[in-house]
Design a protein that fits this description.
By secondary structure, this protein is of the alpha+beta class. Among the domains are: 4-43, no CATH class; 61-97; 105-190, no CATH class. It has eight helices and nine strands. The strands form two sheets. A six-stranded mixed sheet has the order 5-4-9-8-7-6. Helix 3 packs parallel to helix 5 and helix 4 (74-81) runs antiparallel to helix 5 (85-107). The longest helix has 23 residues, at 85-107. The N and C termini lie far apart (170 Å). The relative contact order is 0.07. This is Septation protein SepH.
């Protein structure tokens, strides 16, 4: 800030002439209630006019980027500051890329379980958990932002039916992709080693088994089909077969009986 000193009054006596120390540059100052209050040591908070109070504060580029990095959206900053959304987007773009890269790196990290880091990555674990629950992992969204302590918070959002769900993890970059720890209950359920179990288990239908002591009933024989009477003329005649002549008995030979039965 440049320091000014009062030189005198304007010719009309209504304005104060000030001079910058060192450069000699002149400035004109119009006295008002705020200047009088400042000179007398009074608070100037109530001396602002309504039009001045409604003028939005203009954020500097570093302030915009700091808010974006901490998780704010472009729309939120533009609405809170009254700035043009195009101006906010211009300075927020590189920070949004930084957040997207942090979220991508977090998906390659390993979830920390009770017995240590998991072999699977966060993306593999979450994908398997969502598929096991009948959800589409491609419909989920990842985001990340930096906290005041310098650590990254990673957010996974997905939709189940008509409800919107979110889970938060803490990402610590490091060797072999780094590690992530669950920050809320939803995140803990997603990296649970028993994620393969269904949310609503269905009891298996018992199979009916035959009692071993129950005697088996014999199968009923099929009833014979009724036969139609065949006319005598249509019946096949038995073929005569030529055989050897009958041998007469011994007593017939002694009595002189012929084989034909005639004496």
């Amino acid at each position: 800030m440049r320091e000014l000193r009062v030189v005198g009054l304007d010719v009309d006596g209504k304005r104060i002439i000030c001079e910058a120390a060192g450069s000699g540059e002149k400035f004109m100052l119009l006295p008002d209630d705020r200047l009088r209050a400042a000179v007398s040591g009074e608070k100037t908070g109530q001396s602002k006019t309504r039009s001045e109070a409604e003028v939005p504060s203009v954020l500097r580029p570093k302030e915009i980027q700091a808010r974006i990095r901490s998780g704010a959206s472009v729309e939120q900053i533009a609405s809170a500051s009254g700035a043009d959304i195009e101006r906010v987007e211009r300075f927020a773009h590189p920070v949004l890329l930084e957040r997207s890269r942090a979220a991508e790196l977090a998906t390659a990290a390993h979830p920390v379980l009770a017995d240590g880091p998991s072999v699977l990555t966060l993306l593999e674990t979450v994908t398997t958990a969502l598929v096991a629950r009948g959800l589409d992992p491609d419909a989920s969204n990842w985001d990340a932002w930096r906290n005041e302590d310098g650590r990254w918070t990673v957010q996974l959002s997905w939709k189940a039916g008509l409800s919107d769900n979110v889970a938060h993890f803490r990402f610590a970059p490091g060797a072999h992709g780094g590690t992530v720890t669950a920050f809320d209950d939803a995140a803990s359920e997603l990296i649970d080693p028993d994620f393969a179990r269904p949310l609503r288990p269905v009891a298996a239908v018992p199979q009916l088994a035959r009692d071993a002591d129950e005697p088996e009933l014999p199968l009923a024989e099929p009833e014979p089909e009724p036969q139609q009477e065949v006319p005598e003329a249509a019946k096949p005649r038995a073929r005569r077969t030529k055989g050897k002549p009958a041998v007469p008995a011994w007593e017939d030979v002694l009595l002189g009986v012929r084989s034909s039965g005639q004496r």
